[in-house]
Amino acid sequence: MDSFSKDIKIFTSNSNPALAGDIAKILGRPMGKSQAGKFSDGETNISIGETVRGSDVFLVQSTCNPVNDHLMELLVMVDAVKRASAGRITAVIPYFGYARQDRKSKARDPITAKLVANLITAAGADRVLTMDLHAAQIQGFFDIPLDHLQGVPILAEHIKSTIGNPDDYVVVSPDLGATKLARNFAKRIDTANPIAIVDKRRPKANVSEVMNIIGDVKGKKVILVDELIDTAGTLCNAAAALIEVGGATEVIACATHGVLSGPAIERISDSVIQQFLMIDTIPLPKDKSCGKIKFLSAAPIFANAIERIHENKPVSTIFD
Question: How many other CB atoms are found less than 10 A from the CB of residue 138?
Fold first, then answer.
């Protein structure tokens, strides 16, 4: 009998308890008993309310806003179950924060994605399960196994079931960095049209200026695809250019992670985008709402991956 042969145990903290609950429900498991709070001076306090000795423990926690609080909760949870003799600990991080700081773009810049990877490993995690890292090379920042799920199959399956004839649509990358994502998306919805790319210049952080459209979108409906939306400036500017400059007839947008900081909700509401599909790796705060946004659940794919990890089966076959 191996050291993690007992039942799967799923715990979560404050970042995305709804997603964690959906994952547990699909797996037919109760949520693990735990409490996450703060001491009077602001220090993170985690209490695990049941035994985890020898168990295969999965800690579901997106490191989204407030990023530092949620990251610290994850680290303390890992330490707590490690010290309680968990058989194996998997950090399930649907959205991995600090992923945009993955390289030195100028002198004396930190590589914070690597620092966070080191922290998670040092805390005691045995493996990581995540979705659509901002930069694929972050997988190599970890010295423990990492399973990297894709959001495109979830988004593409929904789009394909709702759009009718896929040849009426052109899949568009909002910048050069998302072209591979766009090609994968176009293949999955079976459109015969080649992808298009929005070429832009970014004068400073979170400010983008659309320059021109590479490809033909005239008279076509457009699906804009990206892995992460922060302030939504890039995507909303791209959508406007596709209609005003490119001659597209309508725009649908898709993204895995909706960070939606600053003026994002207002920009999406005021944009030409008709519908915005996102995956629920990051919850939408209750004080923010937008009728154009529709969330698709990541719970089924994470539940499938967790079950495969528990049974020592390959995770890659999920996407075959």
Answer: 23
Q: In the chain, how many domains are there?
A: 2
Find out whether 270 and 290 touch, Cβ atoms under 8 Å.
Answer: no
In a domain, 284, yes or no: yes
Angle between helices 179-189 and 152-162 (to 10 degrees): 40
- The C-alpha angle 115, 119, 9, rounded to 5 degrees, equals 140
Residue 2: pLDDT band by 50, 70, 90 thresholds? very low
Does the structure show a pLDDT above 90 at 3? no
Domain that holds residue 258: 152-296
Give the residue from 11, 22, 34 showing the smallest Cα distance to 91: 11
| 66 preceded by a cis bond (ω within 30 of 0) | yes
pLDDT at 1 (0 to 100): 36
> Which residues are known catalytic residues?
200
Angle between helices 17-27 and 299-310 (to 10 degrees): 60
Q: Percent of the chain, pLDDT > 70?
A: 95
C-alpha 69/C-alpha 289 separation (Å) is 23
31/104 Cα distance (integer angstroms):
40
Note whether 98 and 168 are same-domain residues: no
pLDDT in tens, 239-267: 999 999 999 999 999 999 999 999 999 99
- 3-state SS class at 212: strand
pLDDT at 30: 96
What is this structure's pTM? 0.92
Give residue for tokens 């898709």: 254
DSSP 271: S
What gap in Å lies between CA 73 and CA 38, rounded to an integer?
A: 10
Tell me whether residue 2 is in a domain: no
pLDDT score for 283: 94
